[in-house]
Write a structure and sequence with these properties.
Layout (H helix, E strand, L loop, with lengths): L1 E6 L2 H9 L8 E4 L6 E4 L1 H5 L8 H4 L2 H5 L2 E4 L2 H15 L5 E6 L2 E5 L7 H16 L3 E6 L2 H16 L9 H7 L2 E3 L5 H9 L11 H9 L5 H5 L3 H7 L2 H10 L17 E11 L2 H21 L2 E12 L12 E10 L2 H15 L6 E13 L30 H19 L43
Parallel strand pairs: 2-4, 7-8
Antiparallel strand pairs: 1-6, 1-7, 2-3, 5-6, 9-12, 10-11, 10-12
């Protein structure tokens, strides 16, 4: 039996922990440059605010409906996520962290009544972190994910279910255990749930299924697997089998390394100068290099892109990209920045108002182990770097780079990200158009001592 634990409206809930006055009010969290709504409270959803909707389209709701908009505070959200995940991990022997606000738990062999365990898990997370969660139990990961959806829907929109299911929906709110339902009850819940709400069924697939007469989860469960596999893919087949109770996916408590690592951002104002783009691209390359080393990989190529804004209709449009293979796979920040900047220079054109940029590492491989202590290694030379000093020990350029990057990561972890950086990635003094606009960011209450919440006497 699996469980999916999910924080309700994660980003908004993190903000409400430290600002209780936001409870009950419509709240949205904006993207890095305050450009789009990336999280919404239930009250904001009820106002019709869509996910990823540009902020300028709903800004009038500040005045007319009391909408509160906050800049993204990812440092706070990440720390709160770590606390929640640590608490959830106490309830089962195996945990797979699926996203910043979701994790799967494997309850095989765990004694006790699952609904009671789910309520205790929810109570403890709420008490210790202030974050509200929903818990769904199912015989497969897809069923657990669907049960979690039902737990949320039953709590937020009980009227979604027909009158004959209202009493059942009340039982399933917040914590939903499909294992406790009779076959008839489970079929009734599936009949009341749209097929597009199933994990793994995207918008396009859902539309095609609807065209074929499959509109509810129950329709999908009863569909012919072989026919749908021919029309769609093996993914849909696995989804159906999971919905029927046959596990096709296990909890992965040792997730595989990412096959691509990307960092991108929209700018607070148009960027036109190459020097500004070099600075931000160097920062992006530094970030992806750090994440690359964290998972113990090296990259074989660097992909970069820049683009103008499609919302600025009077601007000339330009959205080029380039991929630069490396002479040899590397996780060295200096090598990756150099490649990113060279690729950027090849696609930049003056006269355009660039609104977004990004850097992505591709062709990733596990980093080969270094030489045994005390042993030399054959250095692989780079034609664009100076020759090593003759008197240097025969240790190899790769080993020296690894030590240098390890020292860089250690210093930044101890003294704060960006304490030590490559010169081109260092933010210049004065205003900068490409710096993320975060005019509405709340304090980083849990990770910055100078921003910690202060109690005041009444």
């Amino acid at each position: 039996m699996f469980a999916l634990v999910d924080v309700n409206n994660m980003y908004v809930s993190c903000e409400r922990v430290f600002r209780p006055a936001l409870n009950g009010r419509p709240v949205v969290v904006l993207s890095n440059n305050d450009g789009a709504c990336i999280a919404r409270s239930n009250e904001a959803k009820d106002l019709g605010v869509r996910m990823a909707q540009p902020w300028f389209e709903v800004r009038h709701l500040e005045r007319t409906a009391g909408l509160v908009a906050l800049s993204a505070n990812f440092e706070l959200y990440g720390d709160m996520s770590s606390r929640m995940m640590s608490l959830a991990a106490e309830f089962a022997p195996r945990q797979e962290i699926y996203s910043i606000d979701e994790c799967f738990l494997d309850f095989e062999g765990v004694p006790g009544e699952r609904s009671a365990i789910g309520r205790e898990l929810r109570r403890k997370v709420l008490q210790w972190t202030g974050l509200p969660t929903s818990v769904g139990f199912g015989a497969t990961k897809t069923l657990a994910k669907l049960a979690n959806h039902v737990a949320k829907t039953a709590e937020r929109k009980p009227g979604h279910y027909p009158p004959e299911l209202r009493a059942l929906a009340q039982r399933l709110a917040q914590v939903c255990d499909f294992g406790r339902l009779t076959a008839g009850e489970l079929e009734a819940v599936m009949q009341a749930t749209e097929v597009g709400d199933v994990w793994g069924i995207g918008r396009k697939t859902s539309a095609r299924l609807n065209e074929g007469g499959i509109r509810t989860v129950l329709d999908l469960v009863r569909a012919d697997v072989a026919t749908l596999r021919r029309q769609f893919s093996v993914v849909v087949e696995k989804t159906i089998r999971e919905l029927r109770g046959t596990p096709c996916m296990d909890v992965n408590d040792a997730p595989e390394a990412n096959q691509q690592i990307m960092c991108s951002r929209s700018f607070g104002a148009p960027v036109t100068e190459l020097s500004d783009l070099i600075e931000v691209m160097s920062q992006f390359a530094s970030q992806v290099a750090r994440r690359l080393r964290e998972q113990g990989s090296v990259a074989g190529a660097v992909h970069v892109f820049i683009s103008t804004s499609p919302y600025r209709r009077n601007d000339r449009q330009h959205a080029p990209s380039a991929t630069l293979p490396l002479p040899q796979p590397s996780a060295d920040t200096r090598v990756l920045i150099s490649a990113a900047v060279r690729a950027l220079r090849s696609i930049y054109r003056p006269g355009f108002n660039y609104a977004k940029a990004g850097a992505m590492l591709v062709d990733l491989h596990a980093q080969a182990p270094g030489p045994e202590p005390g042993q030399g290694s054959q250095a692989t030379l780079d034609l664009f770097e100076p020759d090593p000093q003759p008197q240097a020990p025969l240790r190899g350029r790769a080993g020296e780079r690894t030590d240098l990057m390890s020292a860089l990561d250690t210093l930044n972890e101890r003294f704060g990200r960006g304490a030590v950086a490559v010169a081109s990635a260092t933010r210049r003094a004065g205003p900068s158009a490409h710096v993320s606009r975060q005019e509405r960011r709340s304090p980083r209450y849990t990770t910055r001592l100078e921003e910690i919440a202060k109690a005041r006497a009444a």
